[in-house]
Amino acid sequence: MAAIETPERAEPTGEAPVESPDVLIVGAGFAGVGMAIRMLGEGFTDFLVIERADEVGGTWRENTYPGCACDIPSRVYSLSFAQNPEWSTGYPRQEEIWDYLRSLIDERGVRPHLRLGHELLDARWSEESGRWAVETSRGEISARVLIAGMGPLTDPAIPDLPGLDRFEGAVFHTAEWDADHDLSGERVAVIGTGASAIQVVPEIQPVVERLSVFQRTAPWIMPRVDREVGEAEKRVYRTFPFVQRALRALHYLLLESRGFPFFIAPKSFPLFERIARRHLARQVPDPELRAKLTPDYTMGCKRVLGSSTYYPALQEPNAELVTDPIAEVRERSIVTADGAERALDTIIFGTGFEIVDLPLGRVIRDREGRRLSDVWDGAPEAYKGTAVAGCPNLFTLLGPNVGLGHNSVIHMIESQISYVLDALRQMRERRLAVVEVRPEAQAAYNERIQAEFEDTVWLTGCRSWYMNEDGRVLALWPASTLRFRAELARFDLAAYEARAASPREPVAA
Ligand code: NAP
Fold this sequence. Notes:
The protein is α/β, with parallel strands linked by helices and 509 residues long. Helix content is 28%, strand content 17%. The protein contains 14 helices and 20 strands. The protein starts with 22 loop residues before the first strand and ends in a 9-residue tail after the last strand.
């Protein structure tokens, strides 16, 4: 079997700190880049951003599979304080989003603060120094405040299929796309029918000889029509940014209204289910195939997908949908439970990400020296998704319970960025060296939001990656994004233990 490449983990060097910024931001995706830009805007200049890769971009650098695009409209899938008048389509493609993030680094003055190729290996709080000792692949960094912006969707999940290691063809995950591998004329399997897979399938179907799509659960798919943004429209946005801002606000509200069936009235989903069923009926005339493609759970329980090209691609003469479970992988084939064997050259996994133990949990320790993944034990929790009890001066962007099923997650990231900025501001003004969320505040917060999930669509019976094995929803925020913004509008110092800086030790800004 062609090996699934995992990047080699660098070992800590054990050297003395090479840099000692006041604030260290980890990760240069939307969260880290957005945080850095806002910090500069507020006059906080003593910070570094470390990024393990040799380029910024986060998930939009990593995911390069054909057809990779955002299913949230470009108008709202950008930072509100760095609008982009140049989007070429209604739904931004991966390369454009990546270009957008790269362009911000120089335009907004982040470059001097950026350290590429620095992987965070281990972060420990030192009570003695009142700082984080951060081991990176390029040496140690000491920082008073640590902001983790690593994102949850970074570690590809590959199912443990019997015999997979015997497979002699090529194997890769959508998030580790092998651009050098030519699929033309090959017999290809795509396993999984989630957001990534349904974007890949229509792109590769015309070039492969035979395409077998292995579906475990039929997803709900809404029609999605994209459009080109013409030069005249871009000129309007360049000249009158308020027009783009107004359209963005409108689009945001439209998406937000889409959220109510998720968290207020799951029973209103049948209306949307009718739209999706009509889309399926219109695009798939064969009743047998249509039955296989019809979801058997309440819409919204898993992520609702959008595509007008996926169903047609499945019906091309060289494509097929396989719903029998995979029994075994052999040297050159996959065998399903019904005994059918399909000869294959390449297997592509569109099987999602390991998210239960958030990637940050493996490398950040609490004040007792325990890794957060051990503390959390499969049930990550934080205060407002942004602070973790037992971790002084740690802020997590896109931490537990911050994801969304209905609107742009950039809105959530921006709420968190404002909250962290207010924390930094208050720490400076009140001359606080350390803030640490109180365990009881974190526990009460999580009890409250977990109770809110009870009436939402996410607990209507499906199994999604939003929840852990105990059925606890970890990946999502249970209410409107407006409420999240309101709850994070000010850094609520009362929920934190705070320690003043000694008079001899000025708090850097
Ligand atoms: P995903 O939504 O988790 O989908 C994984 C797919 O693999 C599902 O169909 C799942 O089936 C299937 N699967 C998992 N394990 C399997 C196994 N052992 N055997 C057979 N099938 C298996 O993953 P994804 O498509 O990579 O997307 C992950 C998330 O990334 C999305 O939910 C979204 O948040 C984000 N994303 C966003 C965009 C965008 O446009 N904004 C695009 C791509 C991804 P089951 O349903 O039965 O589990």
